[in-house]
Design brief:
By secondary structure, the protein is α/β, with parallel strands linked by helices. Helix content is about 40%, strand content about 10%. It is built from 8 helices and 6 strands; from the N terminus they run αβαβαβαβαβααβα. The chain has helices at about 5, 20-30, 45-55, 80-95, 115-120, 140-145, 155-165, 180-190, and strands at about 15, 35, 55-60, 100-105, 135, 170-175. The strands form 2 sheets. Strands 1-2-3-4 form a 4-stranded parallel β-sheet, covered by helices on one side. The chain has a two-stranded parallel sheet with strand order 5-6. Helix 3 links the parallel strand 2 and strand 3 (about 55-60). Helix 2 (about 20-30) packs parallel to helix 3 (about 45-55) and helix 7 (about 155-165) packs parallel to helix 8. The longest helix has 18 residues, at about 80-95. The protein is globular and about 45 Å long. The N and C termini lie far apart (about 40 Å).
């Protein structure tokens, strides 16, 4: 067993990878879930690994690759296109017996700043799919470019957008600043009663 899991047995460990071989190795070390930025598009064996191991899977929306994704921001309708992507991927995952799915709309991945804010504003729309929503916006360019600053100075903007994300239906925040994100969760939880 991984040393980290021995010292922190109550922590849920996620590994970000789009490679099935890395996912399998991580799972054999005790990892609890896989976060795949490609949504299974880069490695045809990824869904099989998830299915065989019966573990949660973070399904992220992305077009293209990290090298060319910003040239793929032309959507007919941003929300409809992403919803269609999720529905197709969910159907494929469910056909393989994978039901423990977390949706990540992929902020910053094949989306420009305006599209990222539109996505955030309409985040609740994904609730119709009945899966938890993960939001990864911490210190992203949509924040620091809007504020005309740098990623290392984007904590306040990240906290503001984390709070908005939670109000709009996010269940999980992927963040660089855990303490501040936990504070956002506590405040929003208090507000929601």
């Amino acid at each position: 067993m991984n040393t980290f899991l021995i010292f922190f047995p109550k922590k849920i460990i996620s590994v970000d990878t789009y490679r099935s071989e890395i996912a399998q190795r991580a799972l054999s070390e005790g990892v609890h879930l896989i976060n795949d930025v490609s949504g299974g598009s880069y490695d045809s064996k990824m869904f099989d690994v998830i299915s065989d191991n019966k573990i949660p899977y973070v399904l992220m929306h992305l077009r293209g690759t990290p090298k060319d994704m910003m040239s793929k921001t032309d959507y007919n309708d941003l929300m409809v296109d992403i919803m269609s992507y999720f529905r197709k991927k969910i159907d494929k995952l469910k056909s393989l017996g994978i039901n423990d799915i977390i949706l990540d709309p992929g902020f910053g991945f094949a989306k420009n700043i305006k599209q990222n804010f539109s996505l955030l504003n309409n985040l609740k729309d994904f609730k119709v799919l009945n899966y938890p929503i993960l939001v990864g916006i911490s210190r992203k360019s949509m924040i620091y470019k809007t504020l005309n600053t740098t990623p290392d100075k984007a904590l306040n903007g990240s906290s503001v957008l984390h709070t908005i994300s939670l109000m709009k239906g996010a269940n999980i925040l992927r963040t660089h600043d855990v303490k501040e994100a936990v504070e956002c969760v506590k405040i929003v939880s208090q507000l929601k009663g």
